[in-house]
């Protein structure tokens, strides 16, 4: 069912500008965290009732924070993007550049799993919230670019790599069949991709 743009905008304003008590904020944060997991697991079949139950709150509490399914989806999607982008800097600070890149791509698999689960509602949001994807898509690309360029610069991956090519390869994970072993297979593909990126590192690689 389509949601009017004014409805999403109104609920977003109400939920995000009204101050919350500490216990209410904890409930909201818990609902967002659980929703990301349930959407990743259940996809289109994820129910708001299950999300509320797993979060340990009543369905009324969920609706007070997120009056529509699409509003919850938008908040979860933005949280996933923010977490993925923040991880780039955190990983780069803790690991060698190629290890940071590989770990980030493994996290990208988890991000894609959640995004696949949100797909139906995201398509609705695409028609009602024109800024959502323009706000977020460039941030993911930039996070990956920083990691790739750092690994190229210190010679831990091959020097003829462009971040857009890596992102294109990772995009294939999204379109793979949604089977029970999808996540494990996707992580194996990340490992294969990293093996290819590391091959010839520090040397001239012929096309």
From TrEMBL:
Q: What Pfam families does the record tag this protein with?
A: TetR_C_43, TetR_N
UniProt keyword Transcription regulation, yes or no: yes
Does the record's keyword annotation contain Transcription? yes
Q: Which residues form the HTH tetR-type domain?
A: 25-84
What residue spans carry the region label Disordered? 1-20
What residue ranges does this record give for the DNA-binding region? 47-66
* Keywords for the protein's UniProt record, in alphabetical order: DNA-binding, Transcription, Transcription regulation
State what protein this is by name: Helix-turn-helix domain-containing protein
């Amino acid at each position: 069912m389509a949601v009017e743009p004014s409805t999403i905008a109104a609920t977003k304003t109400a939920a995000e500008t009204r101050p919350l008590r500490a216990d209410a904020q904890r409930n909201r944060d818990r609902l967002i965290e659980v929703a990301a997991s349930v959407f990743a697991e259940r996809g289109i079949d994820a129910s708001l009732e299950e999300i509320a139950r797993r979060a340990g709150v009543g369905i009324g509490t969920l609706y007070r924070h997120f009056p529509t399914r699409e509003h919850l989806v938008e908040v979860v999607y933005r949280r996933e993007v923010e977490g993925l982008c923040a991880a780039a800097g955190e990983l780069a600070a803790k690991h060698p550049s190629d290890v940071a890149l590989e770990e980030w791509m493994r996290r990208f698999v988890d991000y894609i799993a959640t995004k696949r689960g949100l797909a139906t509602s995201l398509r609705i949001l695409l028609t009602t919230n024109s800024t959502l994807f323009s706000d977020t898509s460039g941030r993911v690309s930039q996070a990956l670019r920083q990691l790739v360029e750092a690994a190229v610069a210190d010679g831990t991956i091959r020097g003829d790599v462009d971040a857009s090519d890596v992102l294109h390869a990772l995009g294939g994970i999204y379109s793979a069949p949604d089977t029970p072993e999808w996540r494990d297979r996707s992580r194996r593909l990340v490992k294969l991709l990293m093996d290819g990126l590391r091959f010839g590192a520090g040397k001239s690689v012929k096309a």
